[in-house]
C-alpha cells in the first residue's frame, strides 16, 4: 500500500466546502482528495468539523459552498448514486439493539436489495467471529462486538468507499485492536476508507495519508513521513529522536489554543 | 430507482419495527390498560350516578370514547420509538443508504397502525365481556373500523411530528396527554347539554364529539347524520396538516 497517488480519479474529492450552523463556521473551505484503495485519516480535535465533513460526504447534510464528490458522483446533484457507493459507520454504533446481530445484518442486506439476505448475514457473522452471538440481541453485545457488527453492516453490498467516523472512540485497547485489524483487511481488499479520529496513534498506525483538520480547514495533508519532515530534523543531542506524529500535530495546531470548547455537532 | 423500492424498503423497515413491538408486547398491553381501567371505573363506579340505568347500556355509551383514548395513549409509543431511532443514529444509517427516502417514516406509521388497532381489538374484547352489545350491521362495523383507522392515522402523524421535534424522551410522548384528555371534554362520557354553556360550546365544536357521536350512532344502528361528515372533515384536515408539517420537519432533520 505504498502507491497513494496514481492516474486513477480520486475516490473522494472535496473542494472549497463550507458549512455553518448559525453563526458558527464549522467548515471554512475544506479541500481534500482521497485516492482509491487507500486509508485516509482525517485527524482533528473534538469540534474541528470532522463529523460535519463526513455527514456532507454521506449526503446527510448539504454544504453551504464548494463541491464534493464521492466515487465520481456529486454529493448534492447525484445523492442517490453516492448512497449506492458508500457506507457510513457512525460515531455511536448505529446498530439496532432490539434485533439480533443476524437480523441487523439481514435488514441491511434487504435494504441494499441483495438476494438471499440470510446467507449474506451468515457469511459476515462468520467473517467477524460473531456466529455464536448471531442469535442474541445486539444490546447484549460488548462494545467491541457492537462495533464489529457495525462495521460488518457497513460492508454489505461491497460499497467502494467507506466512512468510519471515530470507529474506536470509547473502546478498550483490545477492542480497538480488533477494529484496526478489520480496517486494514478492508483496505487490503481494495476498499477506500476515510477515517476520522482524534487519536494520533490510530492515524499513525492505519493511514496511508493523514489530513489534519483544524478550525475548519485542512492545514496539512500528507503521508506520515511527509508530515514528520515538516518539523526540523531531529536535533543532535546524546540520542537522535524523530518527532512523533503527536509532536507534529501539536506543533501544527499550536498546543493549547483550542477553540474554547465548542462542539458544533 | 426510488419509486420501485418504496414498497420493498418500507416492508423491510416495518418488519423491523414490528419485531420491536413483538419483543416488548408490554407496550400494547400498557396501551390497553389505562382505557380498560377507565372503562371499569366509569361503568362500575360512576356509571350508576351518571347514567342511572343498567351498566350494560352505559358500556355501549362509553365505548367509542374509550377507543379514542386507547389510540391517543398508544401513539405516544410511536413518537417514543421514532425519537429513539433518531437519537441512536440508526435513521442516519438508513438515510445514508440507497433506500427510498420516505420509507423510514412510513415504517413507523404502519407499525403504529398495527399496534394501535391491536390494542383497540383488545379493548373491544374486554368491553364485550363487560356487556357491550351492538346490533350494528357488517357495513356499520366497516364504517366504525374506517373511522378508527383514519383517527389512528391522524394521531400517528401528530406523533411523528412530536417524535421529530422532541428534544428529550419525555418530550416525545408529552404531546399525547392533551389528546388523551380531550375525550373528557366531549360527549364521550356524559351528554354535552349537562355541561356549563362555555364548556358545552367547546365540547360540541371539538373533533372528538363528532367522532364519538358518529361511532355511537353506527354501533346503535341509528342514522349517522351530519356528524360523520364533520368528523371526517376534522380528521382529514388535521391529518393533512400534521403530514405536511411532519414531512417538512423530517427533511429539515435528516436532509
TrEMBL record, chain A:
Domain of life: Bacteria
SUPFAM superfamilies in the record: P-loop containing nucleoside triphosphate hydrolases
PROSITE patterns for the chain: ABC_TRANSPORTER_1 (PS00211), ABC_TRANSPORTER_2 (PS50893)
InterPro entries, per the entry: AAA+_ATPase, ABC_transporter-like_ATP-bd, ABC_transporter-like_CS, ABC_transporter_ATP-binding, P-loop_NTPase
Keywords: Antibiotic resistance, ATP-binding, Nucleotide-binding, Transferase, Transport
GO biological process terms held by the UniProt record: response to antibiotic
UniProt entry tagged with the keyword Transport: yes
GO molecular-function terms, A-Z: ATP binding; ATP hydrolysis activity; transferase activity
Protein name according to UniProt: Glycosyl transferase family 8
Protein species of origin: Cellulomonas pakistanensis
Automatic annotation (TrEMBL), chain B:
GO molecular function: ABC-type transporter activity
Primary subcellular site in the record, as a coarse category: membrane
Transmembrane segments: 28-50, 62-84, 105-132, 138-162, 174-192, 228-250
Record's subcellular location: Cell membrane; Membrane
Pfam family for this entry, one: ABC2_membrane
Topology term for the membrane: Multi-pass membrane protein
Keyword Transmembrane helix: yes
GO BP annotations listed: response to antibiotic
Superkingdom classification of source: Bacteria
Keywords per UniProt: Antibiotic resistance, Cell membrane, Membrane, Transmembrane, Transmembrane helix, Transport
GO cellular component, as recorded: ATP-binding cassette (ABC) transporter complex
Domain ABC transmembrane type-2, first and last residues per copy: 26-253
Family: Belongs to the ABC-2 integral membrane protein family.
Name the UniProt record assigns to this protein: Transport permease protein
Organism: Cellulomonas pakistanensis
